[in-house]
């Protein structure tokens, strides 16, 4: 695949390692005849290290032997998150440190979790962009402060702490962006 065709979320091979593209920018040439440069921010799928890649638009990147499979969370123990493939019931163990960014958004029965499979091994998981979580603890709003757009911290059922508007009460169900950890709306 040409560098100019690569999109965020693509998994390609760079220096013999599979990397997932997480961001990109385009640098236009400043002189006549100069090439447009594509700068990619990627994450090594195996080691989780960040990688910066700069290529000309006509350079080729090889697509990795990589797939995403719908899975269901089974349980967690002290070392692993255990998930099961919804189609063939294959079970995978993911070390908790490899899934620590996603764990605050995973609840029992969450739909849309996908396992990242590389060479028949699970190397990580993806959660949906938006998840619904219940508020476990939240201070009450102060009467008369509703004219300003002030926020307060709220602890969700998974232990995640996010900033919410003052009118939100304990026990409510909220939509949260799993990419940024920000409050979106009431569910």
From TrEMBL:
Coiled coil: none annotated. PROSITE patterns: EFP. Residues 131-186 form the Elongation factor P C-terminal domain. Belongs to the elongation factor P family. Pfam families: EFP (PF01132), EFP_N (PF08207), Elong-fact-P_C (PF09285). This is Translation elongation factor P-like protein. InterPro entries: Elong-fact-P_C, NA-bd_OB-fold, Rib_uL2_dom2, Transl_elong_fac_P/YeiP, Transl_elong_KOW-like, Transl_elong_P/YeiP_cen, Transl_elong_P/YeiP_CS, Translation_prot_SH3-like_sf. It comes from the Bacteria. Residues 68-123 form the Translation elongation factor P/YeiP central domain. Signal peptide: none annotated. GO terms for cellular component: cytosol. One of its GO terms (biological process) is peptide biosynthetic process. One of its GO terms (molecular function) is translation elongation factor activity.
